[in-house]
Amino acid sequence: MIAPRLTAWRQARTDARATLGIKGRNATHDLREIFNAILYVNRTGHPVALPTPRLPCKPAVYGYFTAWSKEGIFTDLDYDLTGLVRDHHGRAAELTASIMDTQSIKTSPNVPVDSQGIDAGKNGSCNTADSPATTKPCLTTQPA
C-alpha cells in the first residue's frame, strides 16, 4: 500500500515537471528506503545524519519528509491504513463515532464574563488546569 502511493506521488511530480518544461535530475533514492528512514527517526529519535550504510542521506530524507508532509501523504496513508485495520477486525472502514474531551482552563480576567464559555460539568472556579492536585479541594455549598 505504501510503495504504490509513493510511486504515484513521484510520477505525478515528474509528469508535472515535464508538462511545465522543467528539467530536473532523475530520482536516485528508493522511496521505500526514504520512508524507512523516516520511520527509523520516528521510532528511535536518532538523527539520520549518523553514518549508516542502510539509510539515505539526511538532506534527501528531510526533503522528502517535508514534501510529503505538505502534500498530505502521511495523512492519506494513515487514513488508508486505519481503514484496513478496521476492515480486518470486521468493522466499517469509515469511523462512525468519535469522543472529544476538553479541559477547563482559566480565562483571562480582561475578557468580559458574558463572552466566556461555560463548562456545565464544573462546579466552581477552582477546577482550572493550573490548580495542582495537591492543593486544598474546592468545596462548594448549595443553599438548603
UniProtKB/TrEMBL annotation:
Residues 106-144 are annotated as: Disordered. Residues 124-144 have a biased composition (Polar residues). This is Transposase. Residues 18-76 form the Insertion element IS402-like domain. Signal peptide: none annotated. It comes from the Bacteria. It comes from Catenuloplanes niger. PANTHER family: PHP DOMAIN PROTEIN, TRANSPOSASE.
